[in-house]
Amino acid sequence: MDTLGAPVTIQIGRNLTDLPGCPLYHPDLEQAADCLVWDKHGKSLEFKELYRNKKAIVVFVRNFLCYTCKEYVEDLAKIPKSFLEKADARLIVIGQSSYLHIQAFCSLTGYPHEIYVDPDRAIYSKLGLKKGENSTSSAGNPHVKSNLITGSIKSMWRAMMSPAFDFQGDPAQQGGAVIVGPGNKVHFLHRDMNRLDQASITSLLQHAGVQPVHFGSKPKILEV
Prior knowledge:
Low-confidence stretches: 1-23, 218-224
Order of helices and strands: EEHEEEHHEHEHHEEH
Structural class: alpha/beta
Radius of gyration: 17 Å
């Protein structure tokens, strides 16, 4: 089987760097493949089942109460299913809370695509996703609309109003994104350095071969 092909993209600091000629293989993915995730019904399956037969954009969020995650997933919700189907790709969000919080988070964000949880953060750990943050510089993150103060207040209020007062995950855990499959082929990997460091969704769609989506508040201008 040919293991060479398109470049793997990994993160070096804040930069995403192509490594031409590298195998479409990542050792961290192999370690995470057999870990379990749970769906909204509490049914478990192995992580590798999410990308065994189809390319998958997998986004790991910090926790379901994080305002940056909420606003980021609200933009993921804008991606039409037809765009994903045309590219033969899946879009998957993975959180780190109990599966009992999935439905409320989807209702809050309007997210209609696949979503699972990794409550033990086993996949987060094996993929090397960061714990803690040294700064909260956003570098102009287009998907986060709230500032740190108002966003944090909103997160705390949602925690207080939750049926079970918890943060729906470890607040110190950072997220990331990987484009993988079919099979053990990694096309793109981004590890968030802080809560505002999510990969550009436009970049994710581009690497996955999915039609671009306009996320800005201003009307899109089409060139004719």
